[in-house]
User: Fold this.
Amino acid sequence: MLLDSFTVPRFGILPACLSLSVTRAGYGDYGYPVPEFLRAYDGSRLLGISVREAAQLVTMHPGEVVLAASISTYRLRDRVRFPRAYVRRLIQEAA
Assistant:
């Protein structure tokens, strides 16, 4: 299966909603490197960005851009009052 230009192995199908479960642990279990879009999603969540908004960020923008914005924001986390807004600003500046 192809997702955001990465081949995603089928780690598990959730029967209730018929969606693919893609997790960081799943990649490690199968010896695959974790793709940037998933690392970007995790980084966004670590900053307190909601599940829905983090998913939108990695869907609407390249994973490497969201990942770079998340890393920059995390490094400044003690000085940034609104991480969500700061991440969005960095992504817009990169566009």
